[in-house]
Structure formats: C-alpha cells, structure tokens
Amino acid sequence: MAIDAAPTRTLPFLRKLTRHARIPVNAFEEAGIEANGELVRLTMGPFRPYLVTHPDHVQHVLARNQPNYVREGMFWDPLAPLLGEGILSDGESWAESRRILQPLFTAKYVNSLAERMAEIINELIDETIVPGRPFNVAKGISAIVHPTIVRLFFGAKISVADINRLVPAYDVAVTAKAIRLVMPFVPEPFPMPGDQAFKRAIKTIDEVVYPRIRQARAEDQEGDDVVSRLVKARQDIAGEEGDRRIRDDLVAMHGASTETSATALTWAWPVLQAYPEVAAKVYEEIERVVGDEPLSTRHLPDLVYLRMFVNELLRLYPPGWILPRKAVETDVVGGVTIEAGSTVLLSPYLTHRLPRFWDRPLEFDPERFAPGGEGKRHRYAYWPFGAGPHVCLGQHLFMMEAPLLIGGILRKYRPVVHHDGQVTPRLASSLRPPADLTMTLDPA
Fold first, then answer.
1. Ramachandran region of residue 391, left (φ > 0), alpha (ψ -120 to 50) or beta?
2. Which of 427, 409, 430, 389 is nearest to 254 (CA)?
C-alpha cells in the first residue's frame, strides 16, 4: 500500500448526503467549503474518492499529468451507453473523434456561422414565445437552442419530428442516472431508480440517429452538415462498427453544442430576478446598443456587460459541475498520494466558490469579468468548460450563442420567474434548476 506524502484528511460524506437528501449538490458544496482547497478524501461507505478543488491541483490532474487521469468509473461507466467511445472517452478513440469534430468548433468556423445563428435565434424567439403565458424554463430554452444548432450543423438530415423525439430522450438520458452519481458503490447490475427510463431514452436516440447515418451512407453526397462530414471521415470503417462510431460522434456533438448551452442558459432568468441591480444594467445596455433592431453579430462587441454577465453565470452555474477521473498509476498531488485505481472528483462548481480565489464567492457579480481582469486570476480558478486536452469543444459556440439568445429575448421581454426563494440545483450529470421551474415573459 502506498504511503501518503502527507496525511490525508477525510470528510464523512454520507452523513452530508443524508442531511441534504433533497438537494445533494448542497452536500458537495458543504464538503468544498470544509476542504477549502485542501485535497481531502470523502467517505461514502466503501467508496472513498479524493476531492480536488484547488486550482493548482486541478491543473495537475487535467493538464500536467492528464494521461494518468482517465474518464472511467464513477459517472462515466453508467453513462457509457449514451456517451459511447468518441470525444467523451479517452485514448485513441477520443483522439480520432476530436480530430474529426474539432474543425466544426473552431472560433473561425463558429464566427462564419454567427450571423445565420442570430437570424435563426430571432426567428425561433418569435415562433416559440407567447407573451404573458407561463412556460417551463428548461423546455422553453431548449425549444430555441436545439433547433438553432440543428439548422446550423445538421441541415435536413434530422427532421423536426426527429428533434422532437431526441430532445426529451437526451434530457432523460443525462438525468435518469443521477442517483448513481451519489451512490457509485452500488453495482451496475443492481436495479436503481431511473435505469429503465435511461434504457428507453438510449433506444429512442438510437432509433433516430442510426437511420440518418445509413441514409447518409446510401446517398453518398457531399455536404457541410455534420452527418455528411462524419460519414465521409469514417468512410474507411464500414458496417456496424463504422455506424457505431459515427453515432457516438453525433451524440457527443449534440451534447457539446446543445446540452451545455441549454442547461447553462436556464440559469440566466432566476439570476436576473434575484439580482435586480444586475438586471437593470443588462437591460440598459441592450436597450442602448440594440434598440428596436433585431439583434445581430454587429451588436455583440458593444454588449460588454452582457458578456460579463454570461461569464459570471458560468462561474456560479457551470453546466458540467462535477468531473470524476480515475487514476491509472499512483501519483502525488499537493503532497498527497493518489493511489492507482482511485477516483478523483473535480468540480468547477466548487473551485469557483473558493474564498481564497474569489471575493464574496456566493454573490453574483459580473464586474469580476470586467475587461482586463483575466490576468489577475489563477488560470485554473475559472474553468467552466473543463481544461487541458479535454476542454469542451463547444465553448466558442456557447459564447456566441448565449448573448444572442439572452439579448434577443431581453430586447423585447422582461422575465418573471415563478419561484419563491432561492432557486437551487437538482441532482443530474449537468447542473440543472428544478424541473418544474416556470416563468412568464412580459413585453418590455
């Protein structure tokens, strides 16, 4: 057995989970506060992962010694039927998928699509929003985000009917396994709540995606849509194996371009309501810069405060709130020995709340991201899109899409969120507000 280079403090985590059974994310937040950047171990019965929150330690795991920390075990294994072996895996499959998908997410390519994105978002806002009528926040935002990305990247390969099946199926797939996130010591064959719903969701996803792949292969047409590009890139791999790899890439593409955006943007509205002084500045800037015109990319450089607002939104509510890794070989991090086979839990949600790196960490303050302030922070104190070689491909897309969607709505409407008290996250693989959160958009 390896001997720690320094004593490893442990925190009784099951007790915290019991106390915060209704909102398990609060148990992690409480552990993060107690750890205060120190590398600690969480006792969860037979499962004892290391909690990594200090920016130096995050940098070590995700960048300096990244090959030693793979996406296996907790979180990843239960979601394997959804995620597959593409961009969300490790090793050669990951490298190959990233090479194929990366050109679709570069800043240059996203910028080339920006004006079309703005047009689609404005159209969908007009089509989907009924002023004065309450609607589910998550579903309403998804009704704009998902069709926008599909029109941009997928062309006509996936129909509106397919999207109407995919969106709820994907939503179920990333939430149904949530209970296993906090109970990873329960063997996978042992039935848990959500397992059957997860299987049904995967079946729906595959029923939509595989026929589109086979159709694209049969037509053998050139095209700029994602399906055509992936089919061409994988043309040397025929049959079921080739189809499966394309399927995994498509699911990853969906997650990188829609799931992150839709999840993050659901938090904008309760935050605007909770911080009226911030909301007033956002409204004033949009009125001054955009006025009565449709929001377009030419307005974005002048929407400085809105961009600061989006960055602060990602600080307090990063969609990928917890990112487990499995140590391949024994390593030393922050003076503590991480034994081979151990799980380490990294969390931008917790790192972004460390008092030693963030003044008033629980307060929503966009001024933290005023132009010129980036160099004053530890590089790994803020990492809402992950870090290192596995950094999220969709970050440029999100930072273009978010102000277009928020600004496009707020130039015409003011949100009224129907919720008493603070809106707290629910347990899922991504950081989501309550499933029943609703709001009304009233004319500005």
1. beta
2. 430
